[in-house]
Fold this protein.
Amino acid sequence: ILTLAKRYKDIIRSRYPGGKIIALDYKSLEPRIILAAQGRPAPRDIYADVVDNIFNGMITRLQAKAVTISLLYGASDATIEQVSGLHGADLKNAIDGISSFFGLIDFDERLLDEARKHHRILNFYGRPVAEGDRRKLGNRYAQSSAVDAAILGFAGAIELIKENSWRIHPLYNIHDAMLFDVHPDDGGYLDKVEERCEQVPGFTVAFPV
């Protein structure tokens, strides 16, 4: 499923006449993990909030997303410039503003200190993550924690489905998304499934899907 070409996606069909295959996926999961792990508020649309409240609309949502993801991946300024299309003072302001929004300097320093002492870091759930490239500790933390958070969130939703005998069947987990086969008469329960997905164990904030 992970490597299936897009042109073949239609081979996945519902077992029910009139049924649907739907995907639920977490919104901006890794950046949200970084914020939540530091006790910082996480707006429902992180990138729109960055654009409105930090840059007053001076950059686009796509640019805010490109800079955010690049910073979390430990990319160089040159790479961020290439993927965002920002240059000079605009690029510096975007990097500084988004770094501040996510608290990346303090967060990265905390992880770096942990790596120096223990030659590994722990993700949000206490699972060891190999140290690796020290410029990318934040990304390794976020990716590892996001995997666990998504699995736990979807597991809670599946338990809810089982408890109520809804004809909503989990098919595949793909990173931070899950595909479900939904009976045409039980599609109305999807809102409740989404609500349960948003309740990720260990966090008090909702994780929108």
The beta strands are 20-25, 120-122, 128-130, 168-174, 177-182. The two ends are 20 Å apart (CA to CA).
